[in-house]
Structure formats: structure tokens, C-alpha cells
Design a protein that fits this description.
- The complex is a heterodimer.
- Chain A contains 2 helices and 5 strands; from the N terminus they run ββαβαββ.
- By secondary structure, chain A is of the alpha+beta class.
- The radius of gyration of chain A is 17 Å and the shape is elongated.
- By secondary structure, chain B is of the alpha+beta class.
- Chain B has a single domain, classed as Hypothetical protein apc22750. Chain B (Translation Initiation Factor IF3).
- A 3-stranded antiparallel sheet of chain B has the order 1-3-2, covered by helices on one side.
- In chain B, α1 packs parallel to α3.
- The longest helix of chain B is centred in the N-terminal third of the chain and has 48 residues.
- Chain B starts with a helix and ends with a strand.
- Classes of the chains: A alpha+beta, B alpha+beta.
- Chains A and B meet through β1, α1, β3, α2 and β4 of A and α1, β1, α2, α3 and β2 of B.
């Protein structure tokens, strides 16, 4: 997933020393499911339980948001991102925004 | 006699498209959800019995003062939804207020599932612990104005996995 980029959701990279900070970096993506998947999930809702189509879609989308965040950090010359947070919001029926943000830093 | 027959004939579509789906939803929903919940409980039990530790915590710092070899961000997520029947019960309860037990089942399952997956991930990949774990819930499908019978909730757990250096 990460090309040499260290990610952490703690304030520091455990065991490493932060030498420079480049501020907040972020990545986001809005994804919609296709109609067929929506209908499929609607039927899956009949019995409830895990909605695999949504699980996969959101995982893919979250990875994309992470990639964009990492590209942002790389462009600033950072080699790690600390305090990573995720946020998800339903933009409209059938679409969701996945958002990842953190602080880009350089570690030794 | 004929009037009764015609009324009954008209009730068939009502039965087929309104009553039957909810009935099936009730029967198969209970069965399916019971099955996956039991399966998760069995997996958790097996893990506990095998003597595996509990490496997942929401402490913000590593619990041991030893050197750290690697650390990385790990996450697990799952989307779950209640059944039509449970949604209908939930709708009823919304009218009177009070605990919505029908939703408890699947939401509780989702949260347990992501934490269990994290623990499995840590044990399989040989991490000593996962710290600063956050669990978030979000609604993935908004119920539109016209009820489209889809409701999904996403649970995501993420944290920093740590491997201590052995020396």
C-alpha cells in the first residue's frame, strides 16, 4: 500500500524521531455504487447481515483516499504521516465521501 | 359469495408483495443473522481458548519501553445492514420511542467483527500490539424520501500496529 511512506494514527511514529513537519495533508474521494449493486444490496437487506458489495467498495475508496493523501505528502517532501484520521459521509443516496487526513512529517 | 371471492382475489397481490416479503425477511433474516453471529462468537471463543493475547488497545503510546522494529497503520472495515423486518420494527419503535432492539443485533455484530478482525490481523502478521485504535460508525446509504429499503452502516477500526525489536 505505502511506497516507503510510514503511516500512523498516533502522534509520533513509534520508535522514530520527527525532524520536520509540513502541516496537514489530505486525500478524499467520492464513490457511488452502480445501480445493480444498489439493487443487490437492497435485496441483501431483506435478510440483513453483511453487505459485501458496500464493504468492498468502501475499502477500495478508502485506499484511494489514502493514496491521494500519501501523494500530497510526497509532493511536500515528507516521508511519513502521523495522526491519520478517517471520515466518511453520505453525500447523497448511494454515494459516499471517504476522507483521510493527517500531518506530514519527516522522520529519521 | 361472488363478492367475497373478488375481495380475496384482490388480496393476493397485497399478500404477495407486502406481507410475504416481510414474512420471508423475518424468517430468513433471523436464521442468517443468528448464523453469522454464532460463527463470530465461535471464532472469538476459539481464539481465546488457543491462548492468544489481546493485543488491541486504544492507548496512545506503546505499552512497553523496548525498542520498536516496525510500525504501520492497519484497518479493518465491514458494512452491515438490518433486515427489512428489523427496519419495519425500528420504524414502529421510532413512533413510540424507546430502545430499538432490532437494530442492536446487526450494529453490535459489525462493531465486534471489526475489532475481532483487527486482533486476527495482529496475530497473523506477528504484531505485538495495535495501539490507538479508533472505531467509527457511519451511515453509507441515506434512506431516500421514497423508502428504497436499503440501509447500510459501515464500521471501521484503525490503529497503529507495532512490532517490538527482540534483542
Amino acid at each position: 500500500m505505502s511506497q516507503g511512506m510510514h503511516l500512523s494514527n498516533t502522534e509520533t511514529i513509534p520508535g522514530k524521531l520527527i525532524t520536520a513537519s509540513y502541516g496537514l495533508v489530505q486525500g478524499s474521494t467520492v464513490r457511488a455504487k452502480n445501480v445493480f449493486k444498489d439493487i443487490g444490496a437492497g435485496f441483501k437487506n431483506m435478510v440483513g447481515g453483511e453487505l459485501k458489495a458496500y464493504t468492498e467498495l468502501l475499502q477500495e475508496a478508502r485506499n484511494e483516499a489514502l493514496q491521494r493523501m500519501m501523494m500530497d505528502a510526497q509532493a511536500r517532501g515528507a516521508n511519513a504521516i502521523v495522526n491519520v484520521r478517517f471520515a466518511t459521509s453520505a453525500v447523497s443516496g448511494g454515494a459516499a465521501e471517504l476522507f483521510a487526513y493527517g500531518t506530514a512529517v519527516t522522520i529519521q | 359469495m361472488e363478492v367475497v371471492f373478488i375481495i380475496l382475489l384482490n388480496l393476493i397481490p397485497v399478500f404477495l408483495f407486502v406481507v410475504l416479503p416481510f414474512f420471508l425477511s423475518w424468517v430468513f433474516g433471523n436464521w442468517h443473522q443468528g448464523r453469522i453471529i454464532n460463527q463470530l462468537a465461535a471464532e472469538e471463543m476459539a481464539l481465546n481458548n488457543s491462548g492468544a493475547g489481546h493485543p488491541v488497545s486504544n492507548l496512545s503510546k506503546p505499552s512497553q519501553a523496548t525498542g520498536i522494529e516496525t510500525s504501520m497503520l492497519v484497518m479493518s472495515s465491514v458494512s452491515v445492514g438490518p433486515s427489512w423486518w428489523q427496519m419495519m420494527l425500528g420504524g414502529w419503535k421510532n413512533f413510540f420511542g424507546g430502545r430499538i432492539e432490532s437494530y442492536d443485533k446487526m450494529l453490535g455484530y459489525g462493531r465486534r467483527k471489526v475489532l475481532h478482525d483487527m486482533r486476527v490481523q495482529a496475530l497473523q502478521q506477528g504484531f505485538d500490539e495495535i495501539i490507538n485504535v479508533r472505531v467509527e460508525t457511519s451511515m453509507v446509504t441515506k434512506k431516500s424520501q421514497r423508502d428504497d429499503k436499503t440501509a447500510g452502516y459501515e464500521f471501521i477500526a484503525y490503529g497503529t500496529a507495532i512490532k517490538y525489536s527482540r534483542s
